[in-house]
TrEMBL record:
GO terms for cellular component: plasma membrane. It is found in: Cell membrane. It comes from Hapsidospora chrysogenum (strain ATCC 11550 / CBS 779.69 / DSM 880 / IAM 14645 / JCM 23072 / IMI 49137) (Acremonium chrysogenum). Its cofactor is Mg(2+). This is P-type Na(+) transporter. SMART domains: Cation_ATPase_N (SM00831).
Length: 1142
């Protein structure tokens, strides 16, 4: 890295050139370039390549469940049970192959997404310009930039002619940044010149141009200061791959004391062992399943010891086979395969929905997301500018609605309304005392101030269809002609194409809505005679046009004078205006009138709009441009000052980056699902606040929130960064909007959420999002974003739409629910098998050996061939209607909630009892307790009863497991009425046939019992059973007993509200909601009990009695809230509870 006395943006360009030993007129010499290329690495970003196939393979192989299965396989081969060992080997290969192939394909798709380009740079070397590949650029190179170029490295600009760079990918700022050459950078929010780099973020270092940003207009020259991974974008890329050691792992005894090496080493060993076993790394589900595998393995060992103990440690092969059977019975061999295939199916579904899942674990993790930290530009918003509102003197307001494409003037509509004069700001009214209002008599709710203190004059004016007026025509004329952008319809590609700077494109698209675009006007005879380009110092541009002969369509075109059209920053243009408006609205630009215009500007700006002023003046006669060669710089400035004087203001244009149409509904859906959305952006605080209000991240009236929450809900990054971790943790609520974000701010927010136990997703598309994407629990990058961001993320959205994020979370939740269902399905069968085999230890034959009620191969057949396919079917179940109205899964419990554990035990006991009774009836009821001898090894005439009992038990157990798959389509509702909205009197067959894969899995699995029972040799030699007759009646009868038991337990859970999910805790205000939802919520929550409550308001209760009543409702209803909920919302929750109780 090159060395400077201070950061280059604080130095003059002469000092920068001196520090690098370069000449700004001639550039570096060839000898200097050779030395520098040897000293510095190539100017490239190391964003990480493809993950090697062997790492993907190792990840799949060293899986907890796989390790346990390998152990069981080794034991089977060790006792020469090659059939069982071979089956287990097949299971292992299948599991590893499926997981490996899916992740390998995902990496291949990411290779296509990376598609890194290799742009070139124009540099000055040895006094000559030459074009070189970007990797060959070195510190000290003089680089020439022009419109459309990608900046090759970080540069200190020393020449900037109307130069603006788009830095959205780096800083999040959606508007191109104008570049300057001076080093007098001011600390934002102060008048103090910057003295150190800590005082100014990279977005405000406007004399620097950054690598990977794009020149949107103008030209310039600069000195390369940093290259490759030393650039700002390189630092961000490096931070995504930097490994951070966990706390307490240091072995530095000097810093932490003499005991620290021992403590640090022990914790490192714990981490290493935990990582290998899968217990300390990975998603919650991965860790839970790893723990389950080892717990089951421990149980299998313990049960084997029980088997050996019962058989007095007579370690014959027959006893070892029984112990192995018990171990296999407790391990769900197909769980890994079912889980992986379910994820693969979900990944396929998501890919069709434009979501590329790089890591299978990420999709599962989505189900537990509690917070989403999102970038604004290009994620919540379109990432492009449109004219949203225009104000024309006379208080005429034109608003653009439903613009689906910022570049398409044919989409959307424009309405007209009469704007009200903005009054001068008054002294702030005293804040309302909400506590006092809550103790008042009854109906003093936390109503927004604008509704409580309703003012007639604030009533919005009706919107009308737009009529072309003289003032509007003049505004469109100036907007179209004082503009360098182009808008055209490409007939070949059948879409609108635009070129130019985003704000100018927005103005040009707006004029095209009225068929008054620049191309249309110039074809009608308008002729440009002069241009005064945009100057970042004065923040405006002007053009001079001659009108076509005989033009009378607008009053400003009358006469033969040339016309000057100007646009720029409102304050700068307004200072040059002598008049405001034309025609009847024309008034002298008094100070009072200018203040009124500025208030109108503030109104538009408070809505997140960038406001430009549009003005004109008639030139005295025809303007004759002077030849360039005969004028000096001072003469040009004097001419420009003359041209841009005595202007008439035609109006204001409010331009903004519009939110995506689907953003607000998606945020509302997140709120209903208990997910909180945070916006972390590089934009200006007011812009960020306005967009956040528009999409529903924060309420439009912050008064509905408690004071301490309202104060911290929107903060600047500089304020957030100054806070210590303790101060951040002391906040009642973390900020929902952080503006002017730097990469470190985003990672601090992620860590703050993690300390509060949150499980967060980070969405973004820019390079500045990469550190957070890599450190968040789930990183979601946009397909159009930077390669650095995509490399850091686990999920990539190819369509960049925020609703795809919600769709991914919905799919994650659906999959999580389905995982619970098939885990319950598989483990219930394991519990039933274990109970059956443990009880079977009491069945001792003539040789004193325990006779197993089901053979090892029967167990493997049931676990793999029979129950696997219904488990796959449960994994394909559609999402429940309320999947996005439940809180996120508890990451501490994961899949194994109280309901799953209790259900597994209850259903397993019922299943084990049914099969045990069947076996006993056949052995003791029909055959006098005949258990034969050596029936675990082979068939002989004494084993007839045992083999028949095994066949009946096998058939019954198979059918119970298959029927349980239908029962587990819903954990609480009856199998005979799964859909509560169905009008059918008996919808059983319709409900079970909806999932056809599951339906046919159960049917085919049920029919497969017959060939397994009856095929000669296969039945007696492998499965250790034989054909049966009357025993079928027992098997069928106990299926009905099992169904009755499951239905009875479900009824008890519903009747007594056992093991129910907790309600979503939304707090004081639900994100994504608005005033328009209030009526809908009221209608939904009305009930008979709530009607009585509302009727009681007519009685003259005292504040004290009403307070007691409210307390009673809250305590009886058990309404769970978080934060301060106002009266109306608290009542709505009480009504909701009443409805649920009914």
């Amino acid at each position: 890295m090159a060395e400077f006395p201070k950061h280059p943006f604080l130095l003059t360009f002469e000092e920068t050139a001196q520090a690098l030993g370069t000449d700004i007129d001639k550039g570096l010499t060839s000898a200097q370039v050779s030395d520098l290329q040897a000293k510095f690495p190539p100017n490239e970003l190391d964003v990480g390549g493809t993950i090697p196939w062997y790492k993907i393979f190792a990840k799949q192989l060293f899986n907890a469940m796989i390790i346990v299965l390998v152990f069981a396989m080794g034991l089977s081969f060790g006792i020469s049970d090659y059939i069982e060992g071979g089956v287990l080997a097949f299971v292992i290969v299948l599991n590893v192959a499926i997981g490996f192939w899916q992740e390998y394909r995902a990496e291949k798709r990411m290779d296509a997404l990376r598609a890194l380009s290799s742009p070139s740079a124009m540099v000055l070397r040895d006094g000559k310009t030459q074009v070189i590949p970007n990797p060959e650029v070195v510190p000290g190179d003089i680089v020439l930039l022009k419109m459309g170029d990608t900046v090759p490295a970080d540069m200190r600009m020393f020449e900037a002619m109307n130069l603006a760079c788009e830095e959205g990918q780096l800083t999040g700022e959606s508007i191109p940044v104008e570049k300057i050459t001076d080093n007098n950078i001011i600390v934002p929010g102060t008048e103090k010149p910057a003295a150190s780099e800590d005082e100014v973020g990279i977005g405000d270092r406007v004399n620097m141009a950054y690598a990977t940003t794009v020149v949107r207009k103008g030209r310039g020259r600069g000195i390369v200061t940093y290259t490759g991974m030393s650039t700002e974008v390189g630092k961000i890329a490096a931070s995504t791959s930097k490994k951070k050691r966990k706390a307490g792992r240091s072995m530095n005894y000097k810093k932490y004391g003499k005991r620290q090496p021992v403590i640090g080493l022990s914790k490192r060993i714990y981490d290493a062992v935990g990582k290998f076993l899968g217990l300390t790394e990975g998603t919650p589900l991965q860790r839970k399943l790893s723990a389950l595998a080892y717990v089951l393995f421990g149980c299998a060992v313990a049960l084997a010891m029980v088997v050996f103990g019962v058989n007095r440690f007579n370690l014959e092969n027959e006893v070892i086979i029984y112990a192995t059977s018990l171990g296999i019975a407790i391990i769900p061999e197909s769980l890994v395969a079912v889980l992986t295939i379910t994820m693969v199916v979900a990944v396929t579904v998501m890919r069709k929905a434009n979501v590329v899942v790089r890591d299978l674990s990420a999709l599962e993790a989505l189900g537990g997301v509690t917070n989403i930290c999102s970038d604004k530009t290009g994620t919540l918003t379109e990432g492009a500018m449109i004219v949203r509102q225009t104000w024309i003197p006379g208080n005429h307001l034109y608003t653009v609605h439903d613009s689906q494409n910022p570049n398409d003037p044919s989409k959307g509509r424009v309405t007209y309304s009469q704007a009200k004069d903005e009054p001068a700001p008054e002294k702030e009214a005293p804040k309302r005392d909400y506590d006092q209002e809550r103790s008042a008599a009854g109906i003093t709710f936390d109503v927004p101030d604008e509704k409580l203190n309703f003012k007639k004059e604030k009533e919005p004016q009706p919107e009308l269809e737009v009529e072309m007026t003289d003032a509007l025509r003049a505004f469109l004329l100036s907007s179209a002609l004082c503009n360098l952008a182009t808008v055209r319809y490409d007939t070949e590609e059948e879409r609108w194409q635009t070129t130019g700077e985003p704000t100018e494109i927005a103005l040009q698209v707006f004029t095209h809505r009225f068929k008054s675009g620049k191309k249309t006007l110039e074809s009608a005879g308008w002729h440009q005679v002069a241009e005064f380009p945009f100057d970042s110092g004065i923040k405006r541009m002007s053009v001079i046009y001659d009108a076509p002969q005989g033009a009378t369509d607008c009053s400003i075109t009358e006469g033969s004078n040339s016309l000057v059209f100007t646009k720029g920053a409102v304050e700068r243009v307004l200072d040059l205006c002598d008049f405001v408006g034309i025609g009847d609205s024309r008034k002298p630009a008094t100070e009072e009138l200018k203040e009124s215009v500025l208030r109108q500007m503030n109104t538009l700006a408070s809505q997140g709009q960038r406001v430009l002023a549009i003005a004109y003046r008639p030139w005295d006669g025809r303007f004759t441009p002077k030849k360039q060669q005969t004028t000096s710089g001072s003469e040009d400035e004097a001419l420009r000052a003359q041209v841009e004087s005595g202007l008439t203001l035609l109006g204001l244009a409010g331009i903004y980056d519009p939110p995506r149409r689907e953003t607000k509904p998606s945020i509302r859906e997140c709120s209903n699902a208990g997910i909180k959305v945070h916006m972390l952006t590089g934009d200006h605080p007011e812009t960020a606040k306005a967009i956040a209000k528009e999409v529903g991240i924060i309420p439009k009236n912050l008064g509905v929130l408690p004071d301490q929450v309202a104060e911290s809900i929107v903060v600047k990054a500089t304020d957030f960064d100054k806070m210590s971790e303790n101060e951040i943790d002391a906040l009642e609520e973390l900020p929902l909007v952080i503006a002017r974000c730097a990469p470190d701010t985003k990672t601090r927010m992620i860590e703050a959420l993690r300390r509060r136990g949150a499980f967060m997703a980070m969405t973004g598309d820019g390079v500045n999002d990469a550190p957070s994407l890599s450190r968040a629990d789930v990183g979601i990058a946009m397909g159009s974003g930077s390669d650095v961001a995509k490399s850091a993320a686990k999920i990539v959205l190819t369509d960049d739409k925020f609703n795809s994020i919600v769709a991914a979370i919905r799919e994650g939740r659906r999959m999580f629910d389905n995982i619970q269902k098939f885990v319950l399905h598989l483990l219930t069968s394991n519990v039933g098998e274990v109970i059956l085999l443990i009880a079977g230890l009491g069945f001792v034959d003539d040789n004193g050996t325990s006779v197993f009620p089901i053979s090892p191969l029967q167990v493997i057949w049931i676990n793999m061939a029979t129950s696997s396919f219904p488990a796959f079917g449960l994994g394909r179940e559609p999402a429940a209607q309320d999947v996005m109205r439940k809180p996120p899964q508890d990451k501490r419990r994961g899949v194994f909630t109280n309901q799953i554990i209790v259900d597994m035990i209850v259903y397993g006991i019922i299943m084990g009892a049914c099969t045990m009774v069947t076996f006993c009836i056949i052995i003791y009821g029909a055959n006098g307790g005949e258990l034969g001898h050596s029936c675990n090894k082979e068939y002989n005439p004494t084993c007839d009863a045992v083999f028949r009992a095994r066949a009946a038990t096998f058939a019954e157990l198979t059918w119970l497991i298959l029927i349980s798959a239908w029962e587990f389509k819903s954990l609480r509702r009856s199998m005979f009425r799964l859909n509560p909205d169905s009008d059918s009197r008996f919808p059983f067959f319709k409900d079970i046939y909806e999932n056809r894969f599951l339906f046919w899995s159960v049917i085919v699995g049920g029919l497969s019992v017959f060939p397994v029972v009856y095929i000669p040799y296969l039945n007696t030699e492998f499965f250790k059973h034989k054909g049966i007759s009357w025993e079928w009646a027992l098997a069928v009868g106990f299926v009905f007993v099992f169904v009755a038991g499951v239905e009875a337990w479900k009824f008890v859970k519903r009747r007594y509200h056992l093991l129910e999910d907790l309600p979503v805790q939304r707090g004081a205000w639900g994100q994504g909601s608005g005033d328009e939802d209030a009526g809908h919520k009221f209608r939904r929550t009305m009930s008979m009990s709530s009607f009585k409550t509302w009727a009681s308001f007519s009685r003259k209760d005292t504040g004290e009695s009403m307070g007691r009543a409210s307390t009673k409702v809250g305590s009886a209803g058990g309404v769970v809230t978080q934060g301060a909920v106002g009266g109306a919302q608290g009542m709505a929750q009480a009504q909701q509870h009443d409805r649920e109780m009914v």
